[in-house]
Design brief:
Layout lengths: L2 H11 L5 H20 L4 E3 L3 E8 L2 E4 L6 E4 L2 E8 L1 H13 L5
Antiparallel strand pairs: 1-2, 2-5, 3-4
Helix pairs in contact: 1-2
Length: 101
Amino acid sequence: MTKSELISALNKKLPTLQYMEVESAVNCMLEQMANAMVEGERIEIRDFGSFSTRQRSSRLARNPKTGESVHLPAKTVMHFKPGKQMRDRVDAERNQYEITD
């Protein structure tokens, strides 16, 4: 789902608000979430999941094309952990469509 699809869906559920108001609210929420992640804060959305940052140490890796060793510097990565309700919902869909690994 794209951001514009999300805004349209919210606008349909909240017909008393103008599209631009819904768009502004979504943009504000995403901006605040991005700022929190930059600051290293953890974001928890109940029944959905949590976003956090983790540190990856530097390491030696291999270029799969050439086999050459490459040094990868340490970096911060984002991590998402789904909540129980979200995991259960996804698992139910997985079972419905017989998705296999």
